[in-house]
Specification:
This protein has 209 residues and is an alpha/beta fold. Strand 4, helix 7 and strand 5 form a beta-alpha-beta unit. The protein has one domain: 3-Layer(aba) Sandwich (Rossmann fold), CATH 3.40.50.1000. It has a five-stranded parallel β-sheet with strand order 3-2-1-4-5, sandwiched between helices. It has eight helices and five strands.
């Protein structure tokens, strides 16, 4: 008997981390930080440097705290705790969909703009429960950030798939647009609406979530 997704050309789904797999503790504050980065060149430069791995969380903590909340005095202490404890609650339906995708032999990837905790650059701001992902690409490790086409190319190369064989899910419109321009099927997570995302994902994959 054929599996639900067997007739679909979709062979992988690529998930963003913050805003898709996990909520931010204060999403409005996070968006506020992005808006500041858009209008203030100094803030923008620091955020970009953090996301591409040039500087650590320690170096830009004053800016990052505006978006993700208060950090401990000793940032290095966060290297020993799961990053998800710094995030908000998980999007449970999205995580359930990952299990369903894997059951139907669809690859699962994570693509996140993130940074290093400390200047040692030993541990990055990534969740601990990564075993369900076939591919993980972190901006700080590759020196590129979404929506740069090159970082999407890295994911596609690691998956060994064509753009039209993948679906990408992100909460930020610029990232969704960037993926779409490359021919990747892209879905925006708007206001944490899991059902809307999963309905669209179902239409792409033929899998009922």
């Amino acid at each position: 008997m054929a599996s639900e997704g067997e007739m679909s050309q979709i062979k992988a789904v690529i998930f963003d981390l913050g805003g898709v797999l996990y909520r931010f503790r204060d999403y409005k504050a996070f968006i506020g930080l992005l808006n500041k980065a858009h209008t203030d060149p100094v803030i923008r430069e620091k955020v970009l440097a953090w996301e591409t791995g040039d500087v650590s969380t320690e170096a830009v903590r004053d800016i990052l705290e505006d978006g993700i909340g208060k950090l401990p005095d000793d940032v290095s202490s966060l290297e020993d705790v799961p990053f998800e404890s710094v995030m908000g609650k998980p999007f449970d339906k999205i995580w359930d969909s990952i299990d369903k995708l894997r059951e139907n032999k669809v690859k699962v990837a994570m693509l996140t703009n993130n940074g290093w905790w400390t200047d040692k650059k030993e541990k990055s701001t990534i969740i601990s429960n990564t075993e369900k992902f076939d591919v993980i690409v972190e901006s700080c490790r590759v020196g590129l950030r979404k929506p740069d086409p090159k970082i999407f190319d890295i994911v596609l190369q690691k998956l060994n798939l064509k753009p039209n064989e993948c679906v990408f899910i992100d909460d930020l419109p610029n990232n969704v647009e960037g993926a779409s321009k490359l021919g990747i099927n892209a879905i925006q997570m708007v206001d944490g609406n899991e059902d809307l995302v999963l309905n669209k994902l179902s239409s792409y994959t033929g899998i009922k979530f």
